[in-house]
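task queued by scheduler; priority normal; single chain, no ligands, no partner chains; default sampling; output format set to C-alpha cells
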Amino acid sequence: MSADFLIPLLMLLLLGAAAWKRVPTYDLFVEGAKEGLRTALRVLPNLAAMLCAISLMQASGLMDALCRAFSPLFSKIGIPAEVAPLAIIRPLSGSGALAMLQELMETYGADSRIGLIACTMMGASETIFYTVCIYMSEAGESKSSYAIPCSLAGMLAGVWLAGMFF
C-alpha cells in the first residue's frame, strides 16, 4: 500500500466510524464551516491593518533603515548583514520571510553559514505579530500584555543562538 492512499483511507475510516455511531457528519461539517467564516470575519480587520503596516514599512524604506540601524547589534552577536532583513521581517510576515529565505538559499546555498543561520532563524521564530493579532481577535482581547515582549525575547534568543553556533 502506498502513502498516496493514506489520507483517503483515513477519511473513509472516519466517515465509516461516524456512520456506525450515527453522527450527523454533514451537519457538523456545515456548522464548523459557519464558525470558521465567523472567525475569519472577526479577524479580518486586524489582519488587514497589520498587512497594510508591513507594506508601508517596506515601501517607505523603513525596513532598510531598521536593517542599517540594527546592523551593529547583529554583527556583535554573529549575524551576517545578509540575514539581518530576515530577522526583522520574520516577526511581521511569514510569506515575506519565506521569500527572503528562498533568496538567501539561492544566493548562498543551504550549507553556507548564511544559509544555516537563516534556516535556524526561520525554525526558531514565529510570525509574532500575525499570531498575536489572530489570537487576540479570536479571544476577544484588546491588550496583549506580555505576549509580544515575551515572544520577541524568545525570538531574539533564537537569533542570538543561531549567530553564536554557526
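post-processing summary
- The chain has a mean pLDDT of 87.
- The radius of gyration is 21 Å.
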